Amino acid sequence: MKYYKIFTLLIVAFLFSNSEVVLAQNLIETQYLSGTDKDNLVEWDFYCSDGMNSKKWTKIGVPSCWELQGFGNYNYGRDYKIPKEYHDEYGLYKHKFIVSKAWKNKEVKIVFEGVMTDAEVKINGKLAGEIHQGAFYEFKYSITKLLKYGTENLVEVKVHKMSSNKSINSAERNTDFWIFGGIYRPVYLQAFPKEHIERVAVDAKADGTIKAELFTKSKKAVETKIVLANAKGEKIKVLNVEQLAKEKGIWTVSAKASDIKSWNPEKPVMYQLHFSLLDKNGKNLHTYIQKIGFRTVEVREGDGIYVNNQRIKFKGVNRHSFHPESGRTTSKALSIEHIKMMKDMNMNAVRMSHYPPDVHFLEACDSLGLFVLDELCTWHTPYLDTKVGKKLVKETVVRDVNHPSIVLWDNGNESGWNTELDNEFSKWDIQNREVIHPWGIFKKTNTFHYLPYHGLAYDGYVKDKISFPTEFLHGLYDGGHGAGLDEYWKIMWDLPLSAGGFLWDFADEAVVRTDKNRALDADGNHAPDGIVGPYGEKEGSYFTIKEVWSPIYIEDRYIRENFNGEFRVENRYHYTNLNACTIKAKWVKFDGPKGSAEEQIISESNVNLPSIKPEQKGIFKVDLPQNWTSADALYLTATDQHGMEIFTWSYPVKLPKSYNKGKVSYSGNGKIATKINDSKIEVSTKSLDLSFSSKTGLIEKVVKNGVLIPLSNGPIILDSKNKIDTVYVNSSEEKVEVIALFEANKKYYDWKDNNEMTRESIKWTIHSNGIVDLNVEIRSTRKTKGFKGLTFSFPEKEVAGMKWLGDGPYRVWRNRMKGTQLKVWENDYNNTITGESGYVYPEFKGYFSSLYWMQLLGNNNNGFNVYNHNAHTFLRMLTPDKPFEALRGSDDTKWPSGDISFVKNISPIGSKFKQIGEMGPTSNEEMIFGNDDEPIKIDLTFEF
């Protein structure tokens, strides 16, 4: 290759405005033939060959997936496994448009950002070029000679949903995601000056080094001018000349910019490069504007993945380009919404699954800050047709090469790599980014999917590879994602060769079925895998991820009487000093069931965060107000340098017994009466009538002011095989006690009472004013897979909602405890099956941690209030319905008998690929109690 030093490179002092003729002239002009996104469609004439609304000419909005517009047939990619279930309709499109006479001396191209799947394009009856194959790739044709200027033109497109290329069908259509048909991304014309830059490819390093390739066929251009601007088009800089080389239509440019700010997800600084072609007289022939970010990516063998000389832990998620009402047709607004949600979960990375996304998604990753893995579309099966595979690699890289957010290329997914394509990426990538094989051991990385917890030992024969699972926890229904993440991440963060990983996946891919009365369809258990629902509804794992992946990692802390205000903290940012963030401390008090749901602030202050460099540890201190011990809880709210909340942690100051002291009044005049027969113990106050079994001591009936409150059949002591020995009653003018003693069990001894055998017991105390106390003592083995606690029956149909003080508003699992906040919450009843139906979050049914009190709101009954006086007690509220074919551990959960329970241990949940017990210590069902000397106590107070 020969190099010619024939140009001047300028980075000049300049304010670019609309009046700047030098840069405003000779830009690329764009004319949309379609709409711009899912919310802005343009009607084209349309004919569908089969299925809904077929065999007639009508109208369709473009861009769109035709199924979502009521045409053709729906197909999920796995339908190929069912005989005769794959539909192969085609669509015919026609659209008339006018091209300005001013374009007659320009080169005009028609651009299709995405068509599913084979596209034959005609302009005014003539083929624009060869049929394009491949559903997720941008393609274009030069149509200068086919156009009529200043008058009407006709574009015709024949689109086959299935490709005539078997390799493309196998790679893109036989998949685990929805497949659609249509012109689903925008179509537009681009008008270039006759002498122009086709495109540029830029490598902008973190040290300011710039290398660029300009692709041009211009015969008049003799030099180029390059202006560096900020994202708004403003900059003040001048650089000396570097060099230029010219060969076969490619001009190679290099330079060095000083005082630039590098790009990273924590501070994604973007710039513009303005490339201008100049003729021999210095006249500007064409200006091409390219957005860039300065950053350097290195995959260091046996070490890690580095960006700007910083080793990265990727906190990522897989994401489909998808909306339930428009399929693969999306919008810039949706891209920004999704990325903001990812950033809100404290993620720093996203993997494209399993195809290149919309351009606007990558642009938003550049500007908002996310690392991106860009992927060639395959699913288990590669493009066996290497020729077409090479073409699609080129289309991927040429379109996406300049995005600083893209740090790696994925050659397909899960064995879907044609190894003959591995070296194709670098042919088109000036940055020479590395290629990985997701789910494979390839070169420097091990991207094994869904490793079990014991796989984190990482001591196998590839222990010198970078551990980089591109899918590692699967979120089918409510399993995976947050469940197990805390334990996985503790190992992955500390493992030197771990580069983090990616969750599967961002959103439930449930599509609106225009052929089924607009019902949402996730194809059974194939696509309800999201952290959020199809419309972005946040599931419980959303907030667990937000806490676990917080870049400010606060060590677990318990506030007791000797609390000194200190918190141990680790800075888990890669580029940001901790002192760039802020924390606000708020000491609060909570009302009881009859009060406000809003907390009362008794003191508020800012925390002085120390200077702690990335990945370093330190201590910060919260000021203790004089009355801090009167608070019920402490909130710490961390905010990042951009003003976004990182997370709010809550710390109980008072435990339930202390908090509830004084909340219940036992005063007030009242009479109490008792009736006892062979089967019943009846206790009555002025407004309350209670009935207990004289055989078991269990409550059988509650009537308040003549209205039945259907709480019954409790407290059953869970996981107890002991039998009732004695039930007796103690009565006085102020109260009645109903006591049930169980048979003594030789396993349990009270060493303080001369080895006398101790017993499990139930004690009801009914006060004359209608307050009812329940005290239960439970004996336990040191370890158990059963539940320890109490349960009652309460018909689900009689439940309208609940208000409670405890962790919320989302339910928890044993292996998904983080992400909640101690507060007064209110949830209306819903019967949501996570990821399958309802999509009303938070789910009403499930386990809720750290209960202080709960107000049950009844249907056709007055409900009741219950106060819990013991720390670390869970409320179990009803039993969630089972989702459809949950697979392995994704709903292999156990529930206590009854409907409403107060328990000391709860179930974990597994995932699609992991049984319960395979995802870490807290994913095990076995609970260690470890104390035979003292009973487990559960003390409740009921207000009926």
UniProtKB/TrEMBL annotation:
**Domain Glycosyl hydrolases family 2 sugar binding: from-to ranges:** 58-192
Is Hydrolase one of the keywords UniProt gives this record?
A: yes
Please, which domain of life does this record's source organism belong to? Bacteria
Keywords carried by this UniProt record: Calcium, Glycosidase, Hydrolase, Signal
**Quick one: signal sequence residues?**
1-24
Annotated Beta galactosidase small chain/ domain residues: 737-872
Q: Which family does it belong to?
A: Belongs to the glycosyl hydrolase 2 family.
Q: How does it assemble?
A: Monomer.
Protein's recorded name: beta-galactosidase
